[in-house]
TrEMBL record, chain B:
It holds the Pfam family BPD_transp_1. Gene3D superfamilies: MetI-like. PANTHER family: ABC TRANSPORTER PERMEASE PROTEIN MG189-RELATED-RELATED (PTHR43744), POLYGALACTURONAN_RHAMNOGALACTURONAN TRANSPORT SYSTEM PERMEASE PROTEIN YTCP (PTHR43744:SF9). This is Carbohydrate ABC transporter permease. The keyword Transport applies. It comes from Paenibacillus arenilitoris. GO terms for biological process: transmembrane transport. The lineage of its organism: Bacteria, Bacillati, Bacillota, Bacilli, Bacillales.
Length: 318, 294
């Protein structure tokens, strides 16, 4: 039963032995196929069937006629989307919020990892790590609740502290700029630590001799970070950047849903909220499916082009 | 080598910055905990910062008596335990064949699965698929679509590929079939990565929010996440609780919406925070496994 060797031996030789090898190969595959079946069904039903369901974006879908029976309407849904002031605003908001999250949020874990990497007291490092990883495991409902209890107008803790400084409480959650800052800040707060883990691993892979040589040559701390640390984790940075570029239209539902309110909806209304409120709650399936496709296609194109550019510098993901 | 003044300054600043960051993650949670255990008067007058003032567990009491907290806690446990078990079984069974060189169609399936990480049908088509399966308003609508997380699948497959071939070959020579090979050789060697993925799945199911909003209409089936969210966002739920408590109690000033909200957040957070220190080493390991994906 030395399977691997017998296969490689028999394959290139006579037809008869090849046939025997094929039979053996198939026999060997039967248990594997049985194991594989549930997973395969999962991908067919829950990943690829919805992709087929995209056709409803080109139809006037109603529940009675179903996906296949509903009448075709061509690009009507897309035309409607791109002619509505509301949906254009939603696309714009999604774009602005996620670009800002990327620009402000992406460097933070890198910075944190570099700082943690410079810590010499291991106990201190472990305690800080334990604390900064924790928020990743809390749901946005918890983080949203904490944010509200800190920044609420009437009962918020921050406004209580500011009572002496300001004449009246500041509406943190109701001013666009302060809301946006709180939105971005809470995202960074929640994910910065966990995202730093991967950079810490990359940092651990840098040869310590480089630092020794650097400091002998008179490089100061800043120069060492600039010329040894950052190039050392360059590949990891680019890899993660490509992946996050693909999410540029995708403002996560949980975060926005738990932080938004009616007053800031001009800026906080994004694609994922729209799909839930108009699609799921009000049953406008075709229109919101069209929005979903638009979002996903933009994401796909962005990932592919980011990878294309990275490949030009031999840093591609695939 | 002796550190220069500049370096000393750098290290000093570094410790301060990191200390502040660490505290920024801890203190808001402590503050909420303090709020949940303080009496109404202290909360309303803004006396509570990091320690409870006028210690009382009234907020928790009225929370568990006046709302469906207990039921939705049980719901959350069911969703998490069953969902995690199902997901782990299917993920293992899918990853194992994909790690075998002689599995027919291995490359094709891998690419087909990878593609789903970059493109998908989206919320609405998925919803319609669930609807046609008739599993709306059952927990199957939460469990089935989360059976396999492609990222976790790749982590596990990479780990299986990296296991030493000699052990497996030896087992095969002894007449070990694929199922026994998986059960008695591969899985025991993979316990750390299995622990990591179990943790990731459990966190995901415990925190499930959007999927409950979309697929579960019956409020009796709500999990803790959605119930607490309803409490935070809508004052009506809270007022109901406060009113029902006022009716029966003579001292009216013991509870306030703020305190009950805080108690809700703490209840939702508690299992995570209690388990967290014990599993920390596993998830660090898991995040690292992701970095060597193949």
């Amino acid at each position: 039963m030395a399977v691997r060797s017998s296969l490689t031996d028999s394959a290139p030789r006579t037809g008869k032995r090849l046939k025997a090898g094929t039979v053996k190969l198939i026999k060997q595959n039967i248990p594997l196929m049985i194991m594989f079946l549930p997973g395969l069904l999962f991908y067919v039903i829950f990943k690829y069937a919805p992709m087929g369901g995209i056709i409803i974006a080109f139809k006037d879908f109603n529940l009675r006629d179903g996906v296949f029976g509903s009448p075709w309407v061509g690009m009507d849904n897309f035309v409607q989307l791109f002619n509505q002031a509301q949906s254009l605003q939603i696309i714009r908001n999604s774009f602005i919020i996620s670009i800002l999250s990327l620009v402000v949020g992406f460097p933070m874990p890198i910075l944190l990892a570099i700082l943690l990497n410079e810590v010499r007291k291991m106990a201190f490092k472990r305690v800080v790590q334990t604390l900064v990883y924790l928020p990743h495991f809390l749901s946005w409902v918890i983080v949203g609740g904490i944010v509200l209890s800190l920044f609420a107008l009437e009962s918020g803790t921050v406004n209580r502290w500011l009572e002496g400084v300001l004449s009246e409480p500041y509406p943190f959650m109701y001013e666009k700029v302060s809301w946006l800052i709180i939105y971005l800040g809470s995202g960074i707060w929640k994910e910065m630590g966990f995202a730093a883990i991967i950079y810490l691993a990359a940092l651990a892979g840098i040869d310590p001799h480089l630092y020794e040589a650097g400091s002998i040559d008179g490089a100061n701390k800043w120069q060492q970070i600039r010329h040894i640390t950052i190039p050392g984790i360059g590949t990891t940075i680019i890899l993660l950047l490509i992946l996050s570029v693909g999410k540029v239209m995708d403002v996560g539902f949980d975060q926005i849903y738990n932080l938004q309110n009616a007053v800031v909806s001009d800026i906080a209304n994004v694609i994922s909220l729209y799909i839930y409120q108009i699609g799921i709650l009000r049953g406008q399936y075709s229109l919101t499916a069209a929005m979903g496709i638009f979002e996903n296609l933009v994401g796909l194109v962005l990932v592919l082009s980011a990878n294309y550019f990275a490949r030009k510098f031999n840093q591609g993901l695939w | 080598m002796k550190p220069t003044t500049g370096e000393k300054l750098f290290y000093g600043m570094n410790y301060i910055v990191l200390l502040l960051l660490g505290l920024s993650c801890l203190l808001p949670l402590v503050h909420i905990l303090a709020l949940s255990m303080s009496d109404a008067h202290s909360i309303l007058s803004g006396k509570v910062s990091l320690l409870p003032v006028g210690f009382t567990m009234e907020s928790f009491q009225s929370l568990f008596q006046g709302t469906r907290m207990m039921d939705s806690f049980k719901n959350s446990v069911v969703i998490t335990v069953v969902g995690t078990a199902l997901a782990m079984i299917v993920t293992v069974l899918t990853a194992y064949p994909l790690a075998r060189k002689y599995f027919i169609g291995r490359r094709f399936f891998l690419l087909a699965f990878l593609f789903t990480m970059m493109f998908g049908g989206g919320t609405i088509p998925s919803y319609l698929v669930m609807k046609s399966l008739g599993i709306i308003n059952t927990y199957w609508a939460l469990w089935l679509p989360a059976l396999v997380n492609t990222y976790n699948l790749l982590i596990l497959r990479t780990f299986f590929v990296g296991l030493p071939e000699e052990v497996e070959d030896a087992a095969r020579i002894d007449g070990c079939g694929e199922w026994r090979l998986l059960g008695s050789i591969v899985l025991p060697l993979s316990l750390p990565v299995l622990a990591t993925l179990t943790l990731f799945n459990a966190v995901g199911f415990w925190n499930s929010f959007l999927s409950v909003l979309i697929y579960i209409n019956d409020t009796h089936l709500y999990n803790l996440t959605v119930l607490v969210q309803n409490m935070i966002q809508s004052q009506s739920v809270l007022q109901e609780v406060v009113a029902s408590q006022m009716m029966q109690a003579d001292d009216t000033a013991q509870i306030t919406p703020e305190g009950i909200k805080a108690a809700g957040i703490i209840t939702l957070m508690a299992p995570m925070v209690i388990v967290y220190p014990f599993v920390q080493k596993y998830f660090v390991q898991g995040a690292l496994l992701g970095s060597v994906k193949g």
